[in-house]
Amino acid sequence: MLLEPDIKNQLDQYLQLMENEILIKVSAGSDTNSQDMLVLVNEIASMSPKIKVEETVLPRTPSFSINKVNEDTGVTFAGIPLGHEFTSLVLALLQVSGRAPKLEQEVIDRIKDLKGEYHFETYVSLSCNNCPEVVQALNLMSILNPNISHTMIDGGTFKEEVESKDIMAVPSTYLNGEFIFSGRMTLEEILAKIGSNPDSSKLNDKDVFDVLVIGGGPAGASAAIYTARKGLHTAIVAERFGGQVLDTMSIENFISVKHTEGPKLAASLEEHVKSYNIDIIKPYKAKSLRKNEFIEIELENDALLKSKSVIIATGARPRKVGVPGEEEFRNKGVAYCPHCDGPLFEGKNVAVIGGGNAGIEAAIDLAGIVNHVTVLEFLPELKADAILQEILYKLPNVTVLKNVQTQKITGTSKVDGISYIERDTGALKHIPLEGVFVQIGLIPNTDWLEETLTLNKLKEIVVDKNGSTNIPGVFAAGDCTDSPYKQIVISMGSGATAALSAFDYLIRN
Question: Looking at residue 6, what is its pLDDT?
Fold first, then answer.
């Protein structure tokens, strides 16, 4: 038995939601992974009379496909979809059975209208919290359009395949045998990637909003909900819901919730926003802000939205080192998510740039997977909490280099080393290794506002205690502001503050 009793109880409740019978076709050998996969499939099949199993031969072994009884849907799992991919498996079972997806009709129509053959393959690691979104999106596309198929491939099971393709970041997706993208992507972003874009001309015809929220993270979601509850005509513009929360593996300081995971919280944010009469405009990115009769937000697709007030909640993104080799070897040894990409470096030597909490947590996590970790910190001392440093220094396969400046990430087709300068001696040193994880903090997503809003030297939006900016009617909240603490609970609170301030502004003007 592979499933824990509590997981099995939850699964039993989900399987009761199945609409019609499905057929799981299994391709298994005599190897251990195949036998474990068979145990999982048979265990699931035993829980519902609507699930049938038959043996077959698929391009990869071990693997299994999930199909309608008389129709192949193109949804295949190569490997054992446990860990973060277990949710992908459960959703596939339900959706293949006929359970309707929670998806806007406009997006469903765009998927069904795709012409041509689309055979997707996505390489994942089961510890990757970014991978399921891509897997679930492509599975759903396969179910809705018979010309689309998708195979999830566990890199831990098919190591030789991963190494032969030099895959050093997950998720990595291939279309018809050619690499197409790496990293997290929403369903809408994938559709845009293959040439299916929404009709953005309709955006220009939208009425003037009372409140327009820019950003779909904790601050933006909180702001939109608060203004909607005040009866204000509210819209939220977002590339995707969740923001940085999506890249957070474990959340244990969100008050009243002992433990949750980033993608789960992000999904809850979106679900909560959708429960109100809020116009959700995605996946779009704001390009400029100006104030005329109304506040005008221009999107990157040149559409123009108008509102009586605006709340900026665009969050932040990982800061880059800015040295030669960083961009060239991104996803070829340079990574920013140790949880996602760490397993791909099993048994190898890697470096972590950054001695703050994020860097030291990454080093501790990686030390349990890789052969050796070298931590590079610019300052004379690590900035991480004492308890993290205590754990770090007990690890036998970690070296800490302090007071050093990264000079270059080296390699040919992929990373083969890192060069740094000892700041006290000026000596140039080089370390041969195969991976570099950058963990040096965040940079606010405010580039598009430099000509309009007052920013501090860190490019953060300067706000007062009400979340007001230097432009009347424009407010800001969350990690894009000069708030000294970047925490989920603080972002949500600042989003609520900005929303209430926007309401006060509107009733007084």
Answer: 86
